[in-house]
């Protein structure tokens, strides 16, 4: 082994030993973990093999025998990989769904999984939080797991956060390469990508590649039906002829509310195909589950039945091919099965069937849930209301449970549309629809609602009204928690952001009612009306809502109007109801606030803010908790609690954290002792029984250095 490489390995081993049980925070620490795992898996690089030559023959043979035994299990797995029908697709989806998406959810971004497929590589991208060390160490440990990707690939590069490593395995090899990570240089990821898996394909002819594409296209639309996190699954596929096809599967609604729908849309060769499915659910908990080492500590499990229904009529829909059994993902389709079954089944290694075991037997016995579900599906006969009811009666009728049977999808059926056109039915002019919506909003009986019909009005205006400014004088928008609907022209609209420094999270729940007139929140149901990927006239749905309402996420800093010298009522409400977060909110949004800081400086200086001993002081009378302040207090033997030092989330400020709070100096906050500080120090020392003379000298010397002509009268 050359000295440079040996030195590098020795250095990485030292880094790993020092790391201990902590999560890596640097690239070098991540590389050290990868090197350690690689060695534990039995990886012997060329330098290591050359080093074995220096061992006694018997010791060398024993070591190589250990590596050979370790490879036996993975060898049997690698042989089975090539007999299964692309189990890796389900494994990739399952691994992505098992990941954490807390960061994406805090940013109100939907968790997604994207496949980008070309003849050279199969790329998987997600916006999950990123790998942790224990996840990296155990990926694909049991059964097929992640190793199933080697049914199509010979090299797999994984990049997530600080981690960048690869596995290498070719058909016929012992299989250790499938579990042995090798450190790999990082690639540049897209802005919305946090984890990328790049599989270099081992399919060397178009027939093999086409077979892979067929396997991808065979993934059923309901693949994401029972997933916990993933709500969007996208495919970008390069066909054998070089053309690109894109497919999106999206899940909306919730299973427990029986509102779940799945939409499937494919764009290829200039045409768009789409399909929609709706489902109703019945759920039962099965108790007293038998013990099983693969479900350690579990004594109960849920069985769910999903019934496909027509998206509009809610009538049951039957498929001649039957439905799937699920263990979160489809396992196999049973032709005689009219509904889908989801349970925590124990599957065989290739996930193409369930095992014969007591655990699964108990779960299948719990499918008597069906009897309860069928009773709930029985529909009453339709009754039609009299024609004498007026529009003003609509809300009372809806409250009584009257259903709107208008077929809103009829015009999407080309044959039905052609039939109506032949009868003389014409397209309704956009101008007429907009005018009717305007009349409804100006009506005195118009009330806010998040029902589908009313929300569809806003979606229609987004798609077809070219100038949103013409809507502002009359449009009304439903607001969370309000019985009356304010006009869009209000200055107080906000998006319901979950970030802790944004308006929605800054006001405690118990005080929401006190700020209803200061903060109007757009309902999430309205925000979810249009996909984030869609752009009409160059702007997204969320941007359109922002332009229409002026909605923000962060509290407005100053009151409306050019040159306003008053803080906004919203930011003052934060100070009143959540004073501990007031300054932190200013820090977080300072880049947005700083342009109007001079205008409101006088009022902000007088705002009373929490200090470190439980009292509030005007901002301009306070000090930052810096090393300068602490050093002088320690030198003079004075208690910090006797000074108005700000209570900040950062605690005592270091060089880096001080820079984050330095903007407060614009409003009179001091980071170093000044004349006022030393005057207070002098007064405090005068009340002590005994004060060292050098402390008194230090105080007077400091005051003399800081004194200005205008301080003369005050100092006397």
TrEMBL record:
Highest taxon above the source species: Eukaryota
Classification via InterPro entries: Auxin_embryo_med, HATPase_C_sf
Name of protein: Uncharacterized protein
């Amino acid at each position: 082994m050359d000295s440079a490489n040996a030195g590098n390995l020795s250095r990485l081993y030292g880094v790993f030993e020092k790391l201990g049980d902590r999560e890596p925070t640097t690239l070098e620490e991540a590389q050290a973990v990868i090197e350690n795992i690689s060695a534990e898996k039995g990886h012997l690089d060329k330098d290591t093999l050359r080093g074995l030559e220096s061992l006694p023959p018997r010791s060398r043979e024993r070591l190589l025998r250990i590596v050979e035994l370790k490879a036996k299990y993975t060898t049997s797995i690698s042989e089975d990989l090539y007999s299964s029908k692309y189990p890796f697709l389900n494994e990739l989806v399952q691994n992505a769904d098992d990941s954490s998406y807390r960061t994406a959810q805090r940013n109100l971004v939907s968790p997604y999984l994207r496949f980008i497929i070309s003849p050279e590589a199969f790329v998987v991208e997600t916006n999950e939080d990123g790998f942790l060390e224990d996840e990296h160490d155990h990926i694909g440990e049991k059964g097929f797991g992640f190793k199933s990707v080697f049914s199509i690939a010979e090299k797999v590069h994984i990049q997530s956060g600080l981690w960048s490593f690869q596995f290498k395995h070719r058909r016929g090899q012992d299989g250790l390469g499938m579990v042995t990570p090798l450190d790999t240089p990082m690639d540049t990821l897209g802005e919305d990508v946090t984890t990328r898996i790049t599989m270099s394909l081992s399919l060397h002819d178009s027939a093999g590649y086409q077979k892979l594409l067929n396997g991808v296209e065979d993934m059923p639309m309901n693949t994401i039906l029972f997933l916990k996190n993933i709500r969007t699954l996208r495919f970008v596929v390069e066909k054998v002829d070089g053309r690109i096809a894109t497919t999106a599967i999206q899940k909306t609604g919730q299973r427990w509310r029986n509102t779940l729908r799945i939409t499937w849309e494919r764009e290829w060769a200039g045409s768009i195909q789409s399909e929609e499915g709706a489902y109703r659910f019945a759920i039962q908990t099965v108790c007293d589950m038998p013990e099983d080492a693969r479900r350690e500590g579990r004594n109960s499990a849920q069985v769910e039945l999903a019934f496909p229904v027509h998206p509009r009529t809610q009538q049951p829909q039957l498929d001649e091919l039957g439905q799937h059994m699920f263990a979160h993902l489809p396992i196999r389709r049973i032709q005689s099965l009219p509904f889908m079954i989801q349970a925590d089944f124990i599957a065989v290694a290739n996930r193409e069937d369930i095992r014969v075991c007591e655990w699964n037997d108990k779960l299948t016995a719990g499918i008597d849930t069906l009897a309860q579900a069928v009773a709930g599906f029985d529909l009453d006969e339709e009754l039609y209301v009299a024609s004498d009811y007026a529009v003003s009666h609509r809300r009372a009728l809806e409250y009584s449970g009257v259903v709107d049977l208008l077929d809103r999808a009829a015009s999407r059926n080309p044959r039905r549309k052609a039939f109506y056109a032949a009868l003389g039915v014409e397209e309704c002019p956009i101008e007429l629809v907009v005018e009717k919506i305007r009349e409804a909003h100006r009506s005195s009986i118009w009330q806010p609602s998040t029902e589908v019909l009313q929300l569809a009005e806003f979606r229609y205006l987004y798609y077809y009204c070219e100038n949103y400014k013409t809507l502002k004088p009359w449009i009304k928008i439903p607001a969370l928690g309000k019985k009356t609907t304010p006009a869009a022209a209000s200055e107080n609209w906000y998006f319901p952001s979950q970030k802790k420094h944004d308006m929605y999270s800054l006001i405690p729940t118990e005080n929401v009612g006190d700020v209803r007139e200061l903060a109007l929140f757009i309902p999430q149901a309205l925000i979810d009306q249009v996909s984030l990927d869609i752009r009409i006239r160059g702007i997204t749905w969320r941007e359109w809502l922002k332009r229409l309402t002026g909605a923000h996420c962060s509290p407005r800093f100053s009151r409306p109007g050019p040159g306003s010298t008053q803080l906004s009522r919203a930011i003052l409400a934060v100070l009143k109801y959540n004073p501990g977060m007031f300054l932190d909110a200013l820090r977080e949004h300072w880049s947005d606030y700083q342009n109007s800081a001079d205008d409101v400086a006088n009022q902000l200086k007088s705002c009373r803010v929490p200090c470190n001993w439980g009292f509030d002081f005007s901002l301009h009378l306070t000090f930052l908790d810096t090393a300068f302040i602490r050093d002088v207090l320690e030198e003079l033997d004075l208690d910090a609690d006797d000074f108005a030092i700000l209570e900040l989330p950062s605690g005592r400020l270091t060089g880096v954290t001080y820079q984050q709070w330095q903007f407060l100096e614009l409003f009179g906050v001091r980071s170093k002792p000044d004349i006022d500080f030393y005057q207070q120090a002098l007064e405090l020392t005068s009340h002590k029984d005994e004060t060292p003379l050098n402390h008194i000298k230090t105080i007077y010397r400091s005051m003399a250095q800081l004194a200005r002509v205008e301080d003369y009268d005050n100092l006397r």
